[in-house]
């Protein structure tokens, strides 16, 4: 029989208390490697200039969640907000008839990946 909705949870392990397996592993690691902290080890590897760049980046990315909160996506319903208009200055030039690409020359973007979108449209 399940607990009725709205009734608080009772019993079980208190929040923040590790389960027996996790605590046993921590005890074994502390016994064999006193004072060792894997997060500090990774941070040290990320700072070591002799470590390959790919591994340094990986170590830093593994340590980052312990230091900085992960960003959440933000949902916006659009209520109470009017249309936002913005201007995009683009370095692309209009198609040039002298271009070896002819009509497939780079034209002003039509989206974030405007050039790719234009070429995909023409290829289709």
Describe it.
The chain has 124 residues and is an all-alpha fold. The protein has helices at 20-32, 38-47, 53-67, 114-123. It is built from 4 helices and no strands. The longest helix is centred in the middle third of the chain and has 15 residues, at 53-67. The radius of gyration is 28 Å and the shape is flat. The N and C termini lie far apart (59 Å).
Properties at a glance:
124 residues, mainly alpha, flat
- What is the percent of helical residues? 25-40%
Specify the overall morphology. Answer: flat
SSE-based structural type:
mainly alpha
Q: What's the total number of strands?
A: 0
Order of helices and strands, N to C? HHHH
Largest sheet: none
Helix count from the secondary structure assignment: 4
Q: Which segments are poorly predicted (pLDDT under 50) over 5 or more consecutive residues?
A: 103-117
Mean pLDDT, all residues: 74
Strand % is under 5%
**Ends: how far apart?**
59 Å
The gist of it:
The chain is mainly alpha-helical. It is built from four helices and no strands.
Task: Write the topology of this structure.
Blueprint: H1 20-32, H2 38-47, H3 53-67, H4 114-123
């Amino acid at each position: 029989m399940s607990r009725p909705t709205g009734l608080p949870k009772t019993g079980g392990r208190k929040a923040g208390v590790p389960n027996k397996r996790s605590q046993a592993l921590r005890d074994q690691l502390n016994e064999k490697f006193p004072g060792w902290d894997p997060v500090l080890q990774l941070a040290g590897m990320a700072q070591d200039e002799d470590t390959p760049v790919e591994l340094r980046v990986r170590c830093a990315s593994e340590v980052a969640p312990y230091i900085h909160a992960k960003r959440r996506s933000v949902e916006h319903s659009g209520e109470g907000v009017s249309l936002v208009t913005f201007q995009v200055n683009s370095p692309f030039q209009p198609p040039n008839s002298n271009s070896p690409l002819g009509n497939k020359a780079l034209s002003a973007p039509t989206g974030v990946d405007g050039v790719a979108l234009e070429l995909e449209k023409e290829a289709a």
